[in-house]
Amino acid sequence: MHEETTMHGLKEKGLRKGSVSKWAAITIGLAATAPAYSLAGALGYGASGSGYQLPVIFILSVIPMYFVALSYKHLTTSAPDAGTVFTWGSKAIGPRVGWFGGWAYLLACVLAGVAATQITVNSVAIVFDLHEVPAWFQVGVAVIFIISTTYLTALGAKESSRTTLILTAAQFSILILFALMLFTYIMQGNTVSTAEPFSWEWFNPFAISSFDTFLSGFLIALFIFWGFDASLTMSEEVDGNSEQTGRSGVIAMIITVITYVGFSTLALAYAGIDVNHESSLTHEDNIDSSITLLATGIIGAKGGLVAALVICVSAFSSTMSTIMPSARVALAMATYRAIPQRFASVSEVTQTPQFTTWTIGIMTMIIYTTLSLLSESIIEDTIHGVSIAVCTYYIVASLSCVFYFYRTAFNHWQTALSQVIFPAIAVVILVGVCILQAWNMIDPDYGSSGSIAGMGAVFFIGVVTLLFGIPLMILWNMHDKRFFRGETLPLERAHMVTDSVNGK
Known about the structure:
By secondary structure, the protein is mainly alpha-helical.
């Protein structure tokens, strides 16, 4: 007897194998997490809610995310398909779960693109020293930003991945330089007067004051860790075998957590969390611009400009790294007849889904422009709203791993842990977080865009838009039932196969 864990019936989509190097695959995952702008928005709020225990909360928060990364690793090895969560959910659980997982993935990428566009607009405004941003400037920068990122992504997997590699290297180089300068200032004692000196107690999980403190940090960590899986949708294009490709997500996750824990520790030791000090991370003027605060403190007056530039680079590479995978998930959905066939087209010249790429880019531009004309605060709240969609498709991915491998995993204790038990723990945690986050979003005071019908506008951005996928799925089911009957992606599980005897 031996284990049969390879998924069958997967279709070629016309993508070019070997066009993305192993290193480029890892950097796509790193770029999608957007370390610079994620830290800019997360450090202040994280320190405000979790205090000096933020580093250990980041470490604890990455545990379920690491379990999700293990799910991606095993499923990519068994089915290196561009559809990732859509394909795996359809094969392991059922077509409707897979379709909804794919919808959640696409929604998360579009909302993240809208949020990144707003961050870019704000950063460019700082570069041009604009205190009041006129509507024409906001829309103009947004259009240039989205068209340029979409164009570079549509050029081809090789070209776009190289661009992402360069931008990510530049982003991390600046962050490492910032970190070294912060470390030097701390060692010399040139810190904010109210900042506490570094203590190993910051890494003591038993020093976390309450569950609410932990939950506050965990929700922030969920947002900033998201994106490590971006490269796995390009598994059909990455150089090397599927097992090597699957490891890229895990490697990206490990590098990301080291970056966030290290940088947050230095930031706390340098700036502290005294809300009354104008140079503290949690001061009202700094809480949503931590990188700018730190850069100004260690560089001087030009620090704000340097911070704005690195955040722009971060947002640019992040947007490219979300357009690339979302276009490939849509390509897979169309290939297996889960959405219109037009999205299954692949350019003969670039061997990439150009039509789908441009469609996603234009949709992001239309949504951003529409929301910006309504209210800038609504756009800012898309950062909060995206967490529900992210939780949803991570749940589908982890649950797919459990369903697909449970028949074979328990032959070995290692595979039982990594293929079933750990992913199941991730599902339980993420479902709980998803429910708590949705409940928080109902509060009219949650976020900055007010309420609609007595409920927080963030609830409509995050939850209602996600649930809008259900009527869309029903309508497509009425139009074309082949996918939903399991004809294009039939249900399949890993299973034991009897070894042949004497070649028979």
